[in-house]
Design goal:
elongated; 562 residues; alpha+beta; 7-stranded antiparallel β-sheet; 5-stranded antiparallel β-sheet; 25 strands; 12 helices
Length: 562
């Protein structure tokens, strides 16, 4: 007796490796989504949208004081806006993340398309479909001549097209054989598209490199004063912002001085143009009388050694002279910060140290320092004793100041605002107000004291200019990339991608057709079909006329639109 063993069970489908299932597949799917053109366009739109707050809201990198005032005015809402980075948009983590994702998406999207385009250039034109009549653009004509003669004529008329001619041997469908011509044109359309996206990647890289190796610094200079900006270190700037690869060394050496500043206004009082006359040199050791002179205007910066120097802002710098009881004088000109760009009503502060030797010890000397804060009005108007300004045009300027005596904080070693006095010193009684007065040019006020009177005189004003020095090593490449992007976009929009097929089938001599018998005359049935992405690609309703031009001797001009 023979026992029958049961058949072994069939193996079931292999279970995928958990790593493949839960890690590899999701990552592969995420990569495909990230590198799709749809995602790249969405990220490009998102990047443009994310840049809108940077254009509408004050940015801390450009004007920290204005940004702080805006946050204070908005209260809690302003604090939350600051926490999410709306006042540091272009350096915020979320903007950087969008920027990097767009870069990765474009690179991942373009790389396979470049390979596909290379393969298309090497490939022969696509053979003619079996049934040309199914194509949206199609004509059938019977003309005199053999297929070979017509093929030569059509090939001549299709000059500039990529062509391929194929001879079909006699078969059941074509007993006398046939000739097929495949032609394609418009490869530059895809080339322009690729150039556009490659240039976009190049521009993103150029901007990133410029931010890494670039820097921006601002410095306020009083026009007509002895203040000089020499680009030798970061310490010479009022504010300085640099990329991660900038350590403050190796900056382009130059010096600049503001000789004069002029502001012109429209009849309605709006600013028309700011013009700054400057002296400069690229040799920091050169004597000042050898410096070059030029003019800097709005949107017309001074360019030298890769740096660009702009007129960023302007204002007024009142000049005060303090005459101490011993007859010694101290004169200062300090920039005042505009509170309104329409009226240029400005506020600021000054601190004057007591002359050496006037008091026997340091504590007494420190208690007799002079401090001034208040307002400057270029075109004053008074509401009772309250000083205001009517416009930014200078007309009999005036100041409203408070004069303090005491410890002005000059010996503390702590950094202080150049526009305001230390309120703690005032609240603690270490700096005591001695006078509040409105003055015009040449007027003064007197502070009596046990050692004699101290006189504060308003001497006049000068203009200050905020100069911005910018260095961006990627700016030229950004310009080149933008131009190449524009060229690629124009090419992709102008060039038309089209395909055309021609099938030439001979008619046997003596065949009778609609025109009757033709004896020994050789005739050919010509089928012409075209395919374009859209009717706007160059055919539309005129395809039949253009296609018939292929069959005419010397008809290349007739098919110029093909």
């Amino acid at each position: 007796m023979t026992a029958t063993l049961p058949a072994p069970p069939r193996p079931g489908p292999a279970r995928p490796n958990p790593v493949v299932r839960w890690v590899i597949r999701p990552l592969r799917k995420a990569w495909r989504e990230l590198t799709s053109m749809r995602t790249a366009l969405a990220l490009l739109f998102l990047l443009a949208l994310a840049a809108v707050p940077g254009a509408l809201l004050p940015q801390r990198e450009l004007n920290e004081a204005k940004t702080e005032r805006y946050i204070a005015a908005k209260g809690t809402f302003g604090v939350w806006m600051d926490r999410v980075g709306l006042f540091n948009v272009f350096s915020s983590p979320w903007f950087t993340a969008i920027y990097l994702l767009l870069f990765i998406s474009l690179v991942g999207c373009i790389t396979p398309r470049i390979w596909e385009f290379y393969q298309q250039l090497r490939a022969q034109p696509v053979p003619a479909p079996r049934n040309l009549k199914r194509l949206p653009r199609h004509i059938t004509e019977t003309v005199d001549g053999t297929p070979d003669e017509l093929a030569d004529r059509i090939g001549t008329n299709l000059r500039g097209w990529r062509k391929r001619t194929r001879t079909i041997e006699p078969n059941k469908q074509y007993p006398d054989g046939a000739v097929e011509i495949s032609a394609e044109k418009g490869y530059l359309r895809e080339a322009g598209n690729l150039v556009f996206h490659i240039a976009l990647v190049a521009m993103l890289v150029s901007i990133a490199l410029g931010k890494l190796w670039g820097y921006e610094g601002t410095r306020t200079l009083v026009a007509g004063d002895d203040q000089v900006l020499c680009n030798t270190s970061t310490a010479v700037y009022d504010s300085f912002r640099s990329g991660a690869m900038v350590d403050g060394t190796g900056m382009g050496g130059f010096c600049i001085k503001v000789d004069d500043f002029e502001a012109t206004f429209l009849p309605n009082g709006q600013p028309d143009m700011y013009t700054s006359k400057v002296s400069y040199t690229t040799d920091v050791n050169a004597p000042e009388d050898t410096w070059k002179r030029t003019t800097i205007k709005v949107n017309h910066p001074l360019r030298m050694d890769g740096e660009r120097i702009y007129v960023l802002g302007n204002g007024f710098a009142p000049t005060f002279t303090v005459t101490f009881p011993n007859g010694e004088k101290r004169t200062q000109t300090a920039p005042y910060l505009p509170q309104s760009t329409q009226t240029m009503l400005s506020e600021g502060a000054m601190r004057f140290d007591t002359p050496a030797g006037m008091y026997p010890d340091e504590d007494t000397r420190r208690k007799h320092q002079i401090a001034i804060d208040g307002l400057f009005a270029p075109d004053p108007v008074y509401h009772s004793t309250l000083l205001m300004s009517q416009s930014a045009i200078v007309h009999d300027p005036a100041v409203a100041i408070r004069v303090y005596e005491g410890d002005a904080g000059l010996d503390t070693g702590r950094a202080q605002s150049v526009y305001t006095l230390d309120r703690d010193l005032i609240d603690q009684g270490r700096l005591v107000r001695k006078a509040s007065v409105n003055l015009t040019v040449g007027q003064s006020t007197t502070i009596p004291g046990p050692s004699g009177d101290t006189v504060v005189t308003f001497d006049g004003y000068k203009r200050w200019v905020s100069m911005q020095v910018s260095y961006d090593p990627g700016q030229d490449w950004v310009l080149v990339s933008a131009i190449v992007m524009l060229v690629g976009l124009v090419v992709s929009l102008v060039i038309r991608r089209r395909r055309i097929w021609v099938r030439l089938v001979p008619i046997a001599p003596g065949t009778v057709d609609d025109d009757g018998p033709h004896g020994d005359q050789r005739r050919t049935v010509v089928e012409v079909a075209g395919l374009a992405r859209t009717d706007q690609a160059g055919w539309g309703e005129g395809f039949e006329e253009q296609a018939r031009g292929l069959l005419v001797e010397g008809g290349r001009a007739a098919v110029g639109k093909l």
